[in-house]
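Summary for the steering committee. One of the milestones for this cycle was to obtain a three-dimensional model of the protein with arginine bound, which we needed before selecting residues for the alanine scan. The sequence and ligand used are listed below.
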Amino acid sequence: MTAVALPAPAQSARVAHRRRYLMCAPKHFAVEYAINPWMDPTRPVDTDLAMAQWTSLRDTYLALGHTVDEITPEIGLPDMVFAANSGTIIAGQALGARFLAPERQAEAELYRSWFEGHGFAGVVMPSMVNEGEGDLTWTGQVLLAGSGFRTDVAAHPEAQELFGVPVVSLRLVDPRFYHLDTALMVLTPADESTPAHVAYFPGAFSAGSLRVLERLFPDALLAGPADAEVLGLNGVSDGRNVVLPAQATGLAEQLRAHGYEPVMVDMSELRRSGGGPKCCTLELRG
Ligand code: ARG
């Protein structure tokens, strides 16, 4: 009997997991102040276009089988659409936010009370500046914690103490990548047997932080400047489907080559405030 050559198995069978997300419609979205280099208050944004892009992001999650909760947008808080900054939730424990910019500070209490009312009682509020999942990224094993522009380094041990998980501090050095979630994303969280699979843009990190990333994630996907500059690292993965800014075509190719399914969404109008798909999305981990 002659051996039959079977097709090579897909390099990895990526498995999608259902997620629960919190989002906030950009009803009052505007760029009225500049707290990052993407924001230019002299160029008015198209709120209707932002709403259309945001709606298609939400509908993309729903089509992928995820659950999306929505918090009511508040007039006078044009950045409230960026739900990722409002806290960090791991295993049902919520850590709220404390914003650096005075213009955003009122968002923290609105989200805190939403968490309290929707299954996340016992929210702890940080005493140091802490912009939630903008700077804190749970890999399933460690909490990566950015600093340099927004979240205070002293917020990192505060998060470690609350969650009882190891926190790894990373220093951001390029003002265009002012939050950790503009420079790094988890593609597959760690489980008991495998470390997390991540993608990041090396140019956003200090030399020492880069060495930490190389040590922790030797098989990470490294994004180039062209993808980073369209906020391509600001994606949302369910372990298989990776929702990415439409312009991040190089990263999409890399993902495909590694067995992921890139799902492209155009967030160009929200990018004018420095945000992409991940910024608009907070994961509610039950
Ligand atoms: N304009 C907002 C700010 O600068 C954008 C926040 C984007 N959010 C994020 N998770 N990176 O605060």
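Key point for the committee: Residues 82 and 280 are 4 Å apart (CA to CA).
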